[in-house]
Amino acid sequence: MRIALLVLEFHLHGCCSLKEKRQRLLGLRDRFGKHPRVAVMESDHADSLERAQWSFIVVGANRVLVEKQIQLLINGALEVDAEICEHQVEWL
Q1: Residue-range domains of the chain with CATH
Q2: How many other CB atoms sit within 10 Å of the CB of residue 41?
């Protein structure tokens, strides 16, 4: 079994309120939080309007499956109304 931590840093250009920030990033939790091998959470910058950090724990039978899921997460994150300014993967 393989476990990886994916951390995505977002910049939300022109975000005016925390409510707007949550709406712009809501798709991350809705889309990936229901997946049985993925845990999702907003992990930092909760009170910042233009920054966000989201962390994903991915579990799979082997490294290839986990890497595929990580790529799906990154591709899905590209669809939200925010710019990914940094991402990192740590194998646990």
Answers
A1: 2-91 (3.30.70.1120)
A2: 13
Summarize pLDDT for 18-39 with one digit per residue, the tens: 889 888 888 788 888 788 899 9
- Core vs surface per residue 27-36: b (16+ CB within 10 A) or e: ebeebbeeee
52 class by beta-carbon count within 10 Å (0-12 exposed, 13-18 middle, 19+ buried): buried
d(CA 54, CA 21): 13
Q: Are 69 and 32 in contact (CB under 8 A)?
A: no
Structural contact between residues 79 and 89, judged by C-beta atoms closer than 8 angstroms:
no
Tokens in use for 1? 């079994």
pTM to 2 decimals? 0.88
